[in-house]
Amino acid sequence: MSDSPYSGKDKSDWASITEQLIKDHPLDENSLVEMILNAWNNIFETSIGRHNLKIGDHIFPKPQVIGALMHELIPAEMAATYPKEWRGEKDAGDKDIVYIPNDYYSIELKTSSNPSRIFGNRSYAQKPTQGKKGKDGFYIAVNFEKFSKTNTKPEILVIRFGWLDHTDWRGQKAESGQQSSLAPDTYDLKFKTLYLKS
Predict the structure, then answer these.
(1) Would the N or C end of the chain have less CB density within 10 A of its end CB?
(2) Between residues 179 and 42, the one the model is more confident about
(3) What Gene Ontology molecular function terms does this protein carry (predicted)?
(4) Contact partners, residue 175, CB within 8 Å, separation at least 6
């Protein structure tokens, strides 16, 4: 991976750099939002097991399960829509969503049931090791509602698209801490909000 597009640039320039990165990316913003919303809706249209159990009607998975499904369904939706351009991760060196013509545009996917924040494991705040996928590059961040007794059809809250460097992730200070997070201005300057639930 080449130097960060933000390297040596003043923070006041970050938002315009982010806008240009997204503009130059092969994915159309509206198409990306549509594919993510389609992937989300597919969760609730799928039947599971011999009793045809439906998510949201019969079973109400925890956020980790919904996040895992999104990690499978979003790349699959993109691969089905643009089969010659996009595919899912195949090996340890791949990003979550691979742009076949040029890996520079491949994407990491982060989902969270937090209303507005995303999190990585502690390794995101460290330089990647040989053979592992890089943590610098394009990111899609998707925040979604949790199931509750009063909300059996949760919705996508926010979809953001942008660029993160591994230095943007802040690892927990405690040795036992396994999580990393982003500074508030990172969300404002290095992401563009493509979708916000009304």
Answers:
(1) C
(2) 42
(3) endonuclease activity
(4) none
- Give the C-alpha separation, 17 to 6, whole Å: 7
Residues 6+ apart with CB under 8 A from 64: none
Please, what is the Cα angle at 171 between 167 and 173, to 5 degrees?
130
Residue-level length of the chain = 198
Domains recognised in the chain with CATH numbers: 11-196 (3.40.600)
Which whole-number Å values give the CA distances from 103 to 57, 93, 100, 132, in the listed order? 40, 11, 6, 14
Q: Is the pTM of this model over 0.85?
A: yes
